[in-house]
Design goal:
Blueprint (H helix, E strand, L loop, with lengths): L6 H26 L1 H38 L8 H27 L1
Length: 107
C-alpha cells in the first residue's frame, strides 16, 4: 500500500515542481529569444562556411599538387620535356596579347 504523504511533503513537492517548471520556462525563453535564434543561425552558417572553405582548400591543394607533379619529378627537378612547351605557349600568348594591344593602339 502506498505510503501516506503529509501536507508538508505535498507542499515541498509542489514547490520543487514549480521551481522545475520555472527553470524549464526560463530555458525555453532563452532558446526562442531572437538574439539566441540569430546567434544559432550565425554559428551554423559559420560552421558551414568553415566546412566549405576547408573542402575547397583540400581540393585546391590536391589540384596544385597534381599539376606540380606534372612539371616536377620526385627529386624536385623540373621536367623539361613538359616545362619548355608550356613556357613557349605562355610566351606566345603574351606576345599575341601585346601584338593585339599594339594593333588596337595604332587604330
Amino acid at each position: 500500500m502506498p505510503e501516506a504523504r503529509t501536507p508538508a511533503d505535498i507542499e515541498a513537492d509542489i514547490v520543487r515542481r514549480r521551481a522545475d517548471l520555472a527553470a524549464a520556462l526560463d530555458e525555453i525563453a532563452v532558446r526562442v529569444h531572437p538574439k539566441t535564434v540569430v546567434g544559432d543561425a550565425k554559428a551554423k552558417a559559420a560552421a558551414a562556411l568553415d566546412r566549405t572553405a576547408g573542402r575547397a582548400y583540400v581540393a585546391a591543394n590536391r589540384v596544385v599538387t597534381d599539376v606540380r607533379g606534372q612539371f616536377v619529378d620526385q627529386e624536385g627537378s623540373p621536367r623539361l620535356e613538359r616545362v619548355v612547351p608550356v613556357a613557349l605557349i605562355g610566351v606566345a600568348l603574351v606576345g599575341g596579347v601585346f601584338a593585339l594591344s599594339a594593333r588596337r593602339r595604332r587604330r
